[in-house]
Design brief:
The complex is a heterodimer of chains A (265) and B (169). By secondary structure, chain A is an all-alpha fold. Chain A has one domain: Ferritin, core subunit, four-helix bundle (Ferritin, Up-down Bundle). The chains are: A mainly alpha (265), B alpha/beta (169). At the A-B interface, helix 2, helix 4, helix 5 and helix 8 of A face loops of B.
């Protein structure tokens, strides 16, 4: 038996796998919540149902990733604890997904940019060295292929539609483009995951994403900037530095769980 | 050695044949392909392994509850359900007899889940669904997303009837 040490324990190294899983889960949790704001407000009934369906899939994917994150962390937090009881600075989603839903054109363009990212990422992650991540990714890939067909079809309809629909879709592309470099800005977590064979090389992912996005935008008669801007300014979501919008969304999202802790029905 | 037909595992499987999917009540959870394995230990404890159809399917909790309740009612005291994600659920696991039941219920069965082509395939390219009412192929998809995660909304130009189609994944 050893006597109690007066030397403080070394600071715990950040758990890269846990952080990585939070990013995957939080992107889907936050975008799923944003999409659910369309429920009852869609432009047509079919679209109302479609957006709610996509939202549901994203929340399901978030559940799988956050549940695994909780298991990896090993502190007894499940997916609900991570969703309802973390503060805004502890969320690891990219800024793109937390922006308010805007008009239908904004929602479609944001969804399309995210969906293409999701198909290339889930395709790559289905070959992850981590068997649990590979299984979740393979399952998610089937769903996001439907999502990207839906948002991609709308890109064509809006971009190559009326003068007004084209104007709004183009404005959304212009407004959202600057938020996309964050999706591919690799940091220490991403490098650790790449080295472990868990996650793909983000620069290769970016080329694949850019080519698919450009192809559809071109067919939709929408203009994309020549290059992605340097990710020096608009980033921070991965380390908890969010826009003012996320806190408001979480307040509404978390209030029932926090007002009635442990409630069941 | 010949396996006894009335082994506990067979008994559990027979019980599961009577547990219907809450959203498509003409198919059992086995016909839908979401029951992946059944294990009965020497101590009589039953473990059922299921896989969700869609990751956000809100029926999965009800299905787990129904499975446990039915097996307990069949005389097994300790029943647990565990979830697996691999291999990912596919509509190809729905057997031909089950497809006929779907059609009779007014839901067009899923086409084969041909997973070909690129990651981004716009505009539905596959053959149109067969109308479950008049059997015409003169149909169109109104929305890839329907009343549940697993169904699309279609429209028959021949008999003017809207109908649902089980989405192929």
């Amino acid at each position: 038996m050893t006597s109690p040490s007066v030397v403080p324990a070394p600071a715990e190294a950040p758990n890269a796998l846990f952080e990585f899983l939070l990013r995957l889960g939080d992107d889907r949790l936050v975008l799923g919540s944003r999409l659910s704001e369309w429920c009852g407000h869609g432009p047509i009934l079919e679209e109302d149902i479609a957006l709610s369906n996509v939202s549901l899939d994203l929340l399901g994917q978030a559940t799988m990733f956050l549940r695994l994150a909780g298991e990896v962390e090993g502190k007894g937090r499940d997916e609900d604890a991570l969703a309802y009881w973390r503060e805004v600075v502890d969320f690891r989603n990219c800024l793109l997904v937390e922006l308010p839903k805007g008009d239908f054109g904004f929602t479609v363009v944001r969804q399309f940019l995210f969906d293409v990212h999701s198909v290339v990422l889930m395709d790559a992650l289905s070959r992850s060295s981590n068997a649990e991540i590979a299984a979740i990714a393979a399952k998610s890939l089937k769903e996001v292929k439907y999502h990207v067909r839906h948002s991609g079809d709308w890109m064509l309809k809006l971009g190559d539609g009326t003068h007004e629909s084209h104007r709004r879709a183009q404005k959304a592309v212009d407004d959202l483009w600057r938020f996309t470099p964050e999706l591919f800005a690799a940091d220490d977590i991403d490098r650790a995951m790449l080295a472990a064979g868990v996650a793909p090389d983000l620069s290769a992912l970016k080329d694949q994403w850019l080519s698919l996005v450009r192809d559809v935008c071109e067919r939709a008669t929408l203009t994309t900037p020549h290059a992605l801007p340097q990710p020096s300014v608009i980033r921070g979501g991965r380390t908890g530095a969010h826009t003012e919008h996320l806190g408001h969304m979480l307040a509404e999202f978390q209030i029932v769980a926090r007002s009635h802790p442990g409630a069941t029905w | 050695m010949v396996a006894r037909l009335d082994s506990p595992r067979d008994a559990v499987l027979a019980i599961l044949d009577g547990v219907m999917d809450p959203e498509v009540p003409v198919l059992s959870v086995r016909e839908l392909g979401i029951v992946r394995d059944v294990f009965v230990g020497d101590d009589g404890a039953v473990t059922v392994t299921v896989t969700p159809t869609y990751s956000g399917c809100p029926a999965i909790r009800v299905i787990e509850h129904d499975i446990i309740a039915a097996i307990e009612a069949g005389g097994f005291a300790r029943v647990s359900v565990q979830t697996t994600y691999a291999p990912a659920w596919t509509t190809d696991w729905i057997a031909p007899e089950a497809r006929e039941k779907l059609k009779a219920y007014g839901i067009a069965p899923p086409s084969p889940s041909l997973d070909s082509g690129g990651l981004v395939q716009l505009m539905r390219a596959r053959p149109s669904a067969q109308c479950p009412y008049c059997s015409s192929y003169e149909t169109e998809v109104r929305s890839e997303f329907g009343s549940t995660a697993c169904k699309a909304v279609c429209w028959c130009r021949a008999c003017l009837q809207p109908f649902e189609e089980f989405k192929a994944i």
